[in-house]
Structures are given as C-alpha cells and as structure tokens.
Design goal:
86 residues; mainly alpha; 3-stranded mixed sheet; 3 helices; 3 strands; 12% strand; elongated
Length: 86
Amino acid sequence: MFNIGQFFKKFENARLKEVGFRIIVQKELKEIASIEVPIEAVSIKASVISLNGLSQGARSVIYIKKMAIIDAINREQRSYKVSDIR
C-alpha cells in the first residue's frame, strides 16, 4: 500500500526544486544586471522566465543583458532549460 508520507514527499521535492531555481535566477540577476528582484516576482513556465512587478528601466537593463543572464542560469542549474526572459 502507498504511504501518504511518500505521496506528499513528491510535492515537497517539486516545490523545493522550484524555489531553488528562483533563488538562482535572483542571484544571477543581481550579479549580472545589478537588479534586486524579489523571489516572489520570478516564475517559470514552458522554459520562459517571467518577472512581475519590475520597473521599465529594470526591464530594459535585463533585456540588454538577457543572453548573458540566460547562459549563467543554464550553467548554474540543470533542472530547467531557460530560453527567454520576459
């Protein structure tokens, strides 16, 4: 019989992987673009990172340095393959 603890462990592991990815994105944005992004503003869907609640100036800086940021994120982690930042 399937243990309920094992069932919830699947969800816990998936959630920890997502939070770890968000922390990596936050760190790389701070190092490369010198922009502080709250962890709640970062989300990923279909290999595209979405950044919510940023000013237009911050978005412009990220757009200019987008390829360097994407390369650094993909080098740092293997769980998600990032192709774009929006």
